[in-house]
Design brief:
globular; 3-stranded antiparallel sheet; alpha+beta; 10 strands; about 45% helix
């Protein structure tokens, strides 16, 4: 598991974030106050001491913040063989989850907005422990092997990857590949909506781009080459169309904090 970026802060009482989705998993920890998260399927009320998980490619918006809201927001990517269900869900609040949240409170209380590298490592350990706790309690499902193979090929071909490339690499015709992809996605989250192969490719490219923009000093041009875009302008247009920000602006806004 990797933390792509994180944020901490209060919320404006009447703030409403438009319905959107992204190519990574988001974990929101409510330290104080309350807020609400919803989409077409779910409407979840959150209060202090609760955690909501927004899986990759799940539409959502946050609104109805209380004036005393304080929260932590983590954007993560997991390379493990487990994936989230494809809908919003609130983490069951047991003793372990309560302990995790209290530890996050202590870190923020002691360091406020500037978190030391050591404290960041502790946050990483806490999130990893939370993810493991979700697995043990059957909140996460094993990822079908086909999806793992698809991810490997997207990493290999980058922006040159498409349905035809994936089908050929997996030794199938396009029709059979689409059918097996649909089956794998429904196996991962029975009864849920599933993304198309094209959307899956786009999400993987975005996740990889965000990981490097927020966690490394690789240049925009180098990143464009790494992801096999034709040129930096094509990459920048792709990234801005899907996030609303140019790569450089996104890096400036979301890069991990570093102690002065």
């Amino acid at each position: 598991m990797e933390i792509l970026f994180w944020g901490h802060g209060p919320g404006r009482k009447n703030e409403k974030i438009a319905l959107h989705k992204h190519g990574f998993t988001q974990i929101e920890i409510i330290l104080n106050g309350r807020r609400r998260c919803k989409n077409a399927e779910d409407d979840i009320q959150l209060t202090a001491g609760e955690i909501i998980v927004v899986p990759m490619n799940v539409e959502h918006c946050f609104f109805e913040h209380s004036s005393d809201l304080e929260y932590l927001s983590f954007k993560i990517q997991s390379d493990e063989e487990y994936s989230m269900p494809s809908r919003l869900f609130k983490v069951p609040n047991d003793l372990f989850v309560h302990w995790v949240i209290n530890n996050f409170r202590e870190i923020i209380r002691n360091h406020k907005y500037s978190v030391s590298p050591a404290s960041f490592e502790i946050m990483h350990v806490l999130l990893s422990a939370l993810m493991e706790h979700l697995k043990v309690n059957n909140q996460l499902r094993p990822e079908p092997p086909l999806l793992h193979e698809i991810r490997q090929n997207i990493a290999r071909y980058g922006a040159r990857c498409n349905v035809n490339v994936l089908a050929e690499e997996l030794g199938m015709n396009v029709y059979k590949f689409r059918r097996k992809f649909r089956k794998a996605m429904l196996e991962l989250a029975p009864g849920s909506r599933f993304s198309s192969p094209q959307q899956f490719i786009k999400n993987e490219l975005l996740s990889s781009a965000i990981k490097h923009l927020c966690g490394s000093d690789v240049s925009i041009g180098e990143l464009s080459d790494m992801l096999h875009f034709n040129n930096v302008y094509t990459f920048s247009r792709f990234f801005k169309n899907n996030t609303g920000l140019a790569p450089g602006a996104y890096r400036k806004k979301h890069s991990l904090p570093v102690d002065a």
